[in-house]
Structure formats: structure tokens, C-alpha cells
Design goal:
The chain is α/β, with parallel strands linked by helices. The chain contains 13 helices and nine strands.
Amino acid sequence: MASAVLFDLPDTAKNVPVKGKRPAPVHAERTWHADIDRVTYLGTHQPSWLARPEFGEDCIPLCVAHHRLDGRKTLPRSVTPWMLDSGGFTELSKYGRWTVTPHSYAAAARRYYDEIGLMDVCAIQDWMVEEEVLAQTGLTVWDHQLKTVASFLNLMTLDAELPWMPVLQGFTLDEYLRCVDLYERAGVDLTLEPVVGIGSVCRRQGTKEAVRIIETLWSMGIRLHGFGFKVTGLRNGASHLLYSSDSMAWSVNATYREPMPGCTHQSCSNCPRYARAWRNQMLNSLPEDQQLLTLTA
């Protein structure tokens, strides 16, 4: 099994002075390939990656945010499956509301679906419940849950043919279960949905409480997508309970390391070689029993 040294926290996160950047990782091949590769989305700032042949050849699915695609006259034609992220955390933490209307977002998603192709799923305009987001919106968790469910219903009404992904929001287990009930009362059986996002857990994904929430929802037959899941959360028991996940952690990781051998840029924070190396080492580092369980979850 490959070394997991790539995923150590940067020195700044450990309150240790940074004397110099650490060496970049050596590219590691996957130890074996299976369905887990298909549902571990690699986040990227660069829409052009959708058309890069190496991602298609290795069938590495990507995750691209709406604001990285919006307004472009021409769009890449994807060679690999991908998911559309709505960019909700940025919207709500910055503006305290959605500045993108449901009509505009649905129209944009339709364009991406038709022109880029190979879109697996598109996230709805959900409302996170982290404390800083609630402080910005001035609303309650209950308000955000109602707005999240309403977003799914609105977007389905606007274009039911797109692969909209409903999202569960909450902080405590009871709140997530309440959100499940809200969908049910609206006529949406989440167990019949291809995949359901679980929001507001990425910053506490390594905690026992987060794992308990994921375990409970998984036991109800809901196929979950974990937004922004890092290796810590996956190693702590979540990997075999999630149908899919996405992460941009590789980019932050790269800012604390030297460029990979052969790279001429000063930082690999937007480097496809680094991103692939990070993803391979992350998947290789998961316990084999969790990798196998993921295939049957």
C-alpha cells in the first residue's frame, strides 16, 4: 500500500513554523482499479480539464463549480464523467443569499448538460447550516432546510430531465432526519434517488457524530454523496458508506509543497499531474476492507 505522507496537515495547520516547502509526492499508480474510482470526484478550478485525455483514459470523474463555467462563450467537450457543484457555500457566505436565480441556474445546467456532455449529476442550490453561513443569512436551520427542499422542487419543475441531486441539510442527527421527513412530505422518496448529497459535514467529517449521521442515513437506504470529503473523513469509516464524494483538498495540499519533478510552475495548486497523484495516493491509502465495502454499498 502506498505511503499516505501526502496527506499530512500543512505545518501552518499544526501551528508549527514553516521553514520550507516539503517535497512534492512521486506519482503513484492505483494499486487496483474498481468502481470506487468512478465515484470519487476530483475537484478542479479548471474547466479545461474536462477535455484533457488523461482524465478520460483513466476514467477519473471531475467536479466543477457553476461559477467556473458561467458566462463562457465556448465550453469544453468532456471526455470523462463529471458533476456540477452549485457553489452554494461561496454564495451564502459571501452574500447571505443566492444571487443566481433558479431559472438562470437551471438554464445554465441545461447548457452544460447539452454542450459539455457526460454530466453525472448537478447539485441543487442548497442552503448550508454552518454557523458562519447562518450568521450571514440571519435565518435558522429550519429555514435553510425548507429552502433546500424548495430548491430541489423548483429545479425539478424547471427541468425535470436534468440529473438534479437533492441535498440533506442539518447539524444534529435529528435535524437531518427532519430534513428527510420534509422531502417525504413533499412527495420525494430519497431512497429512489440515484444519489443524495449530505451537506454541512465536511468540516467535521472525521468526528464520531458525523460518522453516526452518515451511518444512520445509509441504513435507511439513501445513497449519499459527501461534499468536500477529505482523506480523514474517508479513513474514519465513511468511505464504505458513501456512494460518492468529491474533494479539492489536493489543491490546498499542493500550496505547501514544492512542484512535482518536471513541473515548471511555482506551485502545483492547479496542476493535473499533482491532482492525479494526490487522488491515487488517497485511494491507495484507504483500508482495503473499506474499499471493498464501497463496491457493495
